[in-house]
């Protein structure tokens, strides 16, 4: 991408989105100054609640003029650092600190958050594979449609807070979402570096277009993602990175005053997952023994792990080997595996972003 540094510090293109017909309503006024914490409500009519609604927590903090930053957490219900850090921010921040607007959804996949599961127990869907959503679909698709049609068009920046969830341990990282335009890609990289995580990784989800970040990209927002540890746990180290990173993105956008506070070691590694070559998948049904550890160097052909077969003790374990050189970015958490389960994700160097980082450091 030769023109990575071309363009301005703000997006110059937006793709207009007209809200589709829907029955969602809110208990907050997104245009009203001050701090409001309430819900957007998605009417539902299950067996036990004929005229009820699912209440999704929604907050808005608005003061004066400035950009709008949309922040989402709880996209998967077993990823906890984002919801905790975002909840703290909403309790602590005062409207007088803000120039512009923060729209925050700290538990967007609310039924999954309540259940502590990756997918919604209502319809079994992965919220992050449901965009642009469908107001005539099941609950998860309706929530995605509201975010896509009614909240993203209001925003200039989109911060999507993830962790590894129950099935993966991941290096605490800020995630670059590749943009469809050179200017958008540059802006995404700059904003992601401003988050200040020790590791930055470009992940394109194998070209997946149904994610929240991909949808925000297509609307022309500046997009930042995260992966904060995982294993279905709360990491104190990752939580601290997330707390600081949220405020850093708000400072980078100009919604909070001052420059981002980048700790020593921020952006130390800038990597990318090189498509399907970066994934090591199980081909067998058995028990996974990881050899490679998070953050360690992976060498092509070296032993990454083994799959054992307790039911067939005479059978030798199957060896998993690295397909590329790189860094162990993620590894599977549960020992039990089936064919197709992701066991490791390997990331390698991302020179374009490193070049951008060097130029930014010189300014």
Automatic annotation (TrEMBL):
UniProt keyword list: Hydrolase, Metal-binding, Zinc
CDD domains in alphabetical order: M14_ASTE_ASPA-like
SUPFAM superfamilies: Zn-dependent exopeptidases
Annotated stretches, region: Disordered: 1-22
Keyword Hydrolase tagged: yes
PANTHER family: BLL3975 PROTEIN (PTHR37326:SF1)
Protein name (record): Succinylglutamate desuccinylase/aspartoacylase family protein
Organism ancestry: Bacteria, Pseudomonadati, Pseudomonadota, Alphaproteobacteria, Hyphomicrobiales
